[in-house]
Amino acid sequence: MRYLEFEKPLREIESKIEQLEVYAYSRDIDLSGEIQPLKEKLSSLLDEIFTHLTPWQRVQLARHPDRPYCLDYLQYIADDFIELHGDRTFRDDQAIIAGFCRIGNYSVAIIGHQKGKDTDENIRRNFGMPHPEGFRKARRIMETAARFHIPIITFIDSPGAFPGIQAEERGQHEAIAKNLEIMSQLGVPIICIVTGEGGSGGALAIGVGNRVLILENGYYAVCTPEACAAIILRDRTKAASISGSMRIVSSDLKNLGLVDEIIPEPLGGAHRNPEETAQNVKNAIIRHLDDLSILSPDELIADRYKRFRDMGVFYEAQSVGISIANETTGQ
């Protein structure tokens, strides 16, 4: 396991436990008297660290290199997954996974960002940053799902759409905008789950759903904390200090009404028990599909439209103008 800076106090204890367990097994002796106190100390330290996380620490957990990605979740919760490739225009973008499977009793379409587990895979998958062809592949699968009345599940985990010149030349902005348009009009249930990073248009391009869920240590933002610090403070190294003001972690997003449910993670983060995390995700998917499956196509579209229209607070410009004028004149 790889450790973040604030996780390092756990490393020494876990290493000692592992060494003792290996030694006890190899010698066929009982060392439970030595191991149990260490496990109790570890449990106490986990509780101390992970029940008082700062927003920046949650952002770091969302990016943890051992965190489960889309294919990991499918391994635990999906049956008969068939991956489909290509956008029928340019090429297959491996930063986006797409296909069909069964989750519980439901046949569903799956679309998700996919990062790599090592350097070679990260390069192949472009660190989870899709090109336009990735979003066009996603749109092709979504339109196919709608044609056959199949619900759509998306897994969001990307720092953002790829900002390179090649992506712009192939219409990155148009591909994202088209996905927003298409997703708003599909007459099937759409459930979007932020499993790690929910970065800007790269996340929103597969994030227009009837229900938007987020894992406990995920985040959803217009831009990364580093980009925000560079723009606002002219210093990207101040990302940690500005992340709290951005209101981008799960609890803030729930309070603001931008997500519908926070899916709990095991103590220590999803990477410490991917199977338990995946089961929590599966339970949430099935529960929301049960609620949405009774709605007609028109009702699903109206429900999705209302969800996004209800975000934020708006004032009529004319009313504000009259109020200011009255205060100025004393009337």
Give an overview of the whole structure.
By secondary structure, this protein is α/β, with parallel strands linked by helices. It folds into 2 domains: 5-52; 60-309, Alpha-Beta Complex (2-enoyl-CoA Hydratase, Chain A, domain 1). The protein has helices at 8-27, 32-50, 55-62, 70-77, 119-124, 132-147, 165-169, 172-185, 200-204, 225-232, 239-246, 250-255, 274-292, 297-309, 317-329, and strands at residues 79-83, 96-103, 106-113, 152-158, 190-199, 211-215, 219-221, 261-263. α1 (8-27) packs antiparallel against α2, α6 (132-147) runs parallel beside α8 and α10 packs across α11 (239-246).
Q: How does the SSE layout of this entry go?
A:
Elements: H1 8-27, H2 32-50, H3 55-62, H4 70-77, E1 79-83, E2 96-103, E3 106-113, H5 119-124, H6 132-147, E4 152-158, H7 165-169, H8 172-185, E5 190-199, H9 200-204, E6 211-215, E7 219-221, H10 225-232, H11 239-246, H12 250-255, E8 261-263, H13 274-292, H14 297-309, H15 317-329
Parallel strand pairs: 3-4, 4-5, 5-6, 5-7, 6-8
Antiparallel strand pairs: 1-2, 2-3
Helix pairs in contact: 1-2, 3-11, 4-13, 6-8, 10-11
Low-confidence stretches: 324-331
CATH homolog superfamily of the largest domain: 2-enoyl-CoA Hydratase, Chain A, domain 1
Number of strands: 8
Count of alpha/pi helices: 15
Query: Which outline best applies?
Result: globular
Structural class, by secondary structure, is alpha/beta
| CATH class category name of the largest domain | Alpha Beta
Q: State Rg.
A: 22 Å
**What is the CATH architecture descriptor of the largest domain?**
Alpha-Beta Complex
* String of helices and strands: HHHHEEEHHEHHEHEEHHHEHHH
Q: What number of domains?
A: 2
Task: Report the sheet with the most strands, covering strand number, pairing sense and barrel closure.
Answer: 8 strands, mixed
Helix % is: 40-55%
Tell me the fraction of residues in β-strands, as a range: 5-15%
Mean pLDDT: 90
* CATH-derived topology of the largest domain: 2-enoyl-CoA Hydratase, Chain A, domain 1
Work out the oligomeric state of the chains in this entry: single chain
